[in-house]
Every structure is written in C-alpha cells, then in structure tokens.
Amino acid sequence: MSLLYLHPALAFLGGLVLVLVLPRRLRPVALVGAPAVALLLVEALAARAGEGAATQLLYLGQTLQPLRVDALSLLFARIFALAGGIGMLYGLHERSRVGHAAMMGTVAAALAVVLAGDLMTLFVAWELKALATTAIVATGGMAASARFAQRYLLMHTLGGTLLLAGIVWWVVGGNPLAFVAMDLTPASALILGGFALSAAIPPLHAWMTNAYPEGSPAGTVVLSAFTTKAAVYALSRGFPGVELLVWVGVAMALYGLIFAMLENDMRRLLAYHIVSQVGFMVCAVGMGALGEGPAQDKVAKLALNGSAAHAYSHILYKGLLLMATGAVIYATGFRKLSELGGLWRRMPFTLAMLMIGAVSISGTPLWNGFVSKSMVITAADYAQRPAVEWMLTLASVGTFLHTGLKLPWFIFFAADSGVQPQRKLPWNMGLAMVVSATLCTLIGLWPQLLYDMLPHQSQAGEAVYKPYTVAHVLHSVQLMLGTALVFFLLVRLLAGKPEVQRDAGEIYTLVGRGFVLVSRRVVQPAMAATAQVVGAGVRALPPIGRRIDGLRRAPIGLWVMAAVMVLAVLVLVLQGV
Amino acid sequence: MKRLIPILAVLLVVVSLLELVLPVKVYDHHPWWRGLPGLYGLFGAAGCGLLVLVAKSLGKLLLVPEPDPALEDERPIDPAQMEEGR
Predict the structure, then answer these.
(1) Distance of residue B59 Cα from the nearest chain A Cα, in angstroms
(2) Is A416 helix (H, G, I), strand (E, B) or coil?
(3) What is the DSSP letter of B30?
(4) Residue B6 in contact with partner chain A when CB distance is under 8 A
C-alpha cells in the first residue's frame, strides 16, 4: 500500500513553491504552514507505522523504497520537521526569497534522506540536500558567503561522488539496494566516506567551519540542524558497531574542542563545537554493535539510543545557541568575541536565551543535555572502556568551558566594548528562541518525552536508563564547578584576539594548487594535441555548406557532451518505459 | 567577580562532601579511586587547566593575525546592509 502521499518532505516542497510565488506579505503563511503540515504528516505516518509503511517503486529494474518508517527514522523526521519550523520562524523577517526557498528545500531533502529505505533514494535526496544547503550559504548576505559557498559545493560534490561510487560498487557486488546495516568492505567504505564528509569528520570538516559563519542568522540555524545530523542518521543506520567510529568519534570530540577554544568568531566557535558534539554521536554509533551477547547488547542499545537522543537534543540547543549569537550579529553587526563585551545590560533577553542553550549543551541537570549526552558516556562505562569514557568526559569539560563559560562571558560580560545594539530583534526571532529554550527545559525535566521515541526501547526485565541518579547529578555539578573555578582563575588568558586560525582548509589549497599544476603541465597539452588531431580530421571532410561549416568549428568537447546527454536521456526514458 | 572564585570553591567542597552523605551507586568494575568524593570536581578543574594550556600552546602554532580588512573581505557587517536580501 502506498503511503507516499504522506511523505513529510512534500509539505516542505509545497512550501518551497509557495515561497517562490507568494507575495512577500503572504510568505509567512508558507514559512509557518509547511512545518506544521509536515509535523502532522509525520504523526500520521507514525500512527500507520504498524502497517509496515514501506512504499515501493520499481525503476530501472530495481526496487526502490522512498518511504521507510521505523523508530529511528521517525525520531529524526520529527526533530527535522520541528527544527525546520523553528528555523523558518526565526527567519520569518529575512527578505531573500531564494534564501527561504533554499531553507525549505533543505528540510525537504533532509526528511527524504531519513525516510529513504533504499540507497538510490538516499543518494538523490543527499545530492538535493547538498544543493539546497549550498544555496543557503550563497544567499547568506555576508561578505564571504559566495566564496565559501563555492568551496562548500565542491566538498559536497566530492562527498556525493564518493557515495555514488560506493553505492554502485556495493550493488554491482551483489548486495541489495536496501539501506540497512552494511558490513565494512571497500565498497561500503566509500559510502562511509561520503557519510563521513557530511558528518564533518576531520579532515573533511572545513566546509562546515568555513561556511556556517557566513550564512545569514536564520540560514545558519537551518544549516546546523540538517547536514551533519542526517549524516549521523546515515551512519547509525548503515554502520552501527564499526569499531573505527569509536576512536574517530573520540578524536573528533577533542579536535573540535581545541579549535573552538582558539576561535574568535562566535559562530565559527559554535561550528567547531558541532564537530565536537557530532564526535559524541559518531563514537556512540561505533559502540552500537548488536548481536554479540547480552552484555554487549545492553551497551549497544544504550549507545545507539544515546546517539539518537544526543542528535535530537543537539539540534535543539545548538539551534538555540546559533539563534542567540545570530541575534547578537543581527542587532550589533559584530561577530567576533574580541569586538564584543558588556552586552548584558543592553540585550538581557538574548543573554537569557544564550544561557539556556549554554547550560543545556553543558549537561546541566534540569536541561536536555544532561539526559542525552550522559547516555553515551554511560555506555562507554558499561562497556568497560575507561579511555573512551574519560576522554568523552574531558570533552564535556571543554564544552562547558568554551560554550557554557567563554562564549557568554566574552559576549555579555568581560570588558565593556561599548558596542550598542543598532536595532531591536523582530518578534519572530524571540519567539523561535523561546520555543527552543522551552523544549530544552521540558525534555530535561521530563526525559521520558524523548526516551519514548528512541529506537531501542527496553524490553520486559531489562534495566531502564535513569538520568537522575544521585551519582550522575553530583558528578555533573562537581565537574561544572571545578571547570568554572579554573576558568575564572585563568579568564584573562582566554580573551579573544583578532586572529584567525589555520586549519585543514590549508590542505585543500595545497591540493587545489597541485591539481592546477598537473592540469597545466600534463592535461592541457594532451587535450590540445588531441584537438589538433581530431580537428585536422574534421577539416579534411568536404565542406557541406556554410552553417554546417560553422558547427564543425565548434569545440569538440561540446559535441561529445551533447552526444552523451542525448544518449543518457534516451537510456533513462526507454528503461523506465 | 572577585567573590565568585571563593563562592565556587565553597560550593565545590559542599557538593563533594554530599557524595559521602548521599547514597551513590558504585559498580563492580570500577576501581577504588572512583568512589572518592570530589573526583569529578578535580577532573573538571584539572581538565579545564589542561585544555587551556593545550589551547594556548597550539595557538602559538596555529593562530595568525587577522588579515588586513582592506585586503580581505571580512568586514564587520553593517546592520543596514543586511536588510538587502539577495
């Protein structure tokens, strides 16, 4: 039975069309309406999940599954629709029609990714997401937006190519097209590579740390919620229990932290921090090896649940942090910590919102980070992997240090920079932040709201994860107090200076230069020689009239391209028929 | 601000002592020192110090002065300019 008409991506696709055609006064209808409809569709799907809501299509001799509904995809679909709504609300006032359309497209594509049951649908949705997110970066309105959008597109095209190569190799090797957990082979390793790039696993992360700070305030909020988390979903679905991911995750968690601490640009700091938090999720996926005995199963379920729970919470509180810093940028025009300070008197509401995001991300009891991040660390504890456990705990210290302490301190307190807000925040930005902050708090107080959505529910007789234990609360509070103590002792050392940091992006420049060199010395002479030969052959033909003569002089490459395109379209059409 | 540090220190001691008074679950596979009160506070403090140290050291390697705004594109954004969407 086809439930395709209930696909929530359709709501955002409709929203995309409306945003492009409606007059500006009516655009808010689409911006708020699309997410609302999408949320309803997700719930409708959830209600029908028992009917095995897997829709199938036949194309090119393969069975596609554009809609696959289970607990994991529903969780991500829910938070994506929700985050899309919050992001659109936050960006209601922005003027760029294309920017809004790009946001709609991003959410639609992201929903298609998490509900895709087969690799082909996944790939198409993945590429569409890359295009839509590039458009968000390009329309960011910052000075460097266009430049970083180009790099962003190049990197994501690379990721998409890896993904496609891997998928083709995988299927040709006799594996089914269904998107399920895969064994690690050279073919699936390419797929993993494609996912890893989107997850911003270093050294493939620079696209994010370069591009996110250059989006518009709302654009970056939308960006942050979807690309990396869709990749986390994909890793969780395709590669649970791959041991490599445990160590990659731990390394990411610490790498992102170090660079976040050095960073002066507010939103780039948060972007590096995304790398760190995604590291937690990736590490958790790595610990999720099911089917290896009851003790390991307990660890794996907690880890996979932790990964999903952390992704859910992270979308909420990272969105809130980006919204608050976006609000500071909107109001003051400044984006660097070295240029800010003393804003607490002039922007108290924004400070409050930032602090809620900050305490959430730091894992303070009563907020959502406390009930989600700890699942991953506890899983490492149950797995008796103290190295992993303590390194992730160190990452938590670092998180609190730079996002919970340094960021608010240098924006709102510290030496007063004299910066004044130039304009008031529009009501929609404030409301969006309040919604996020409320959800962060609500989940912290009633974690069962989140836990009921997790993919691996406890069976009868199995222990249930309880975040509010005496040990957990006391240890978390101690950890934060100890960190805060040393922070304030050393605070002078941490002041931002107008500096920028080198990072993996430098590698790209080197590779790019090498490529251009090879191209000039080797490829271009070869192409010129070929053109000479072919051109001589073509000119040897008898002239058939002036018009044809003109065409004969057209670049050979153009002819080849045209021929290939015609052939490709013919093949696709005839196959489908 | 000056009083903040002693307040934090006192709170830390109090919460650490609570660990002795309140029932804290201990796992079989944990070594003896994990039961010590204040362990996590110490870890937070030491971890923070370590991370700041590492950051400052790496900063010497990795940080370069911001490029001259006249040459680079990273001007502070004029809020009035941002009204013009593309």
Answers:
(1) 6
(2) coil
(3) S
(4) no
Interface of A with B in 328-347 (CB under 8 A): 329-336, 339
Tokens of A390: 């303590």
Please name the residue of chain B whose CA is at the shortest distance from the CA of residue A396: B44
Q: Model-level pTM?
A: 0.87
CB-CB neighbours of A433 under 10 Å: 29
Place of tokens 């001259």: B68
Residue A468 predicted with pLDDT over 80 = yes
Instruction: Tell if the CB–CB gap between A329 and B77 is shorter than 8 Å.
Output: yes
CA distance A116 to A120: 9
- Please report residues of B whose CB lies closer than 8 A to that of A141: 77, 81-82, 84-86
**Nearest of A197, A161, A167, A196 to residue A182 by alpha carbon:** A167
Is the Cβ–Cβ distance between B28 and A295 less than 8 Å? no
A394 chain-B contacts, CB cut-off 8 A: 43, 47, 50-51
Say yes or no for a CB contact (<8 Å) between B8 and A485.
yes
B50 alpha carbon, distance to own chain's centre: 10
Which tokens in the block code for residue A241? 């229990």
- Nearest CA-CA distance, residue A129 and chain B, Å: 20
**Binary contact (A96, B86; C-beta < 8 A):** yes
pLDDT digits (tens, 9 = 90+) for A72-92: 999 999 999 999 999 999 999
CB A502 within 8 A of CB A208: no
Q: Got the DSSP string for A342-353? A: -TTTT-HHHHHH
Beta-bridged to residue A54, according to DSSP, are: A68
Among candidates A372, A390, A370, which has minimal Cα distance to A380? A390
Handedness of CA A526, A531, A534, A535 (dihedral sign): negative
CB A309 within 8 A of CB A472: no
Does the ipTM surpass 0.85? no
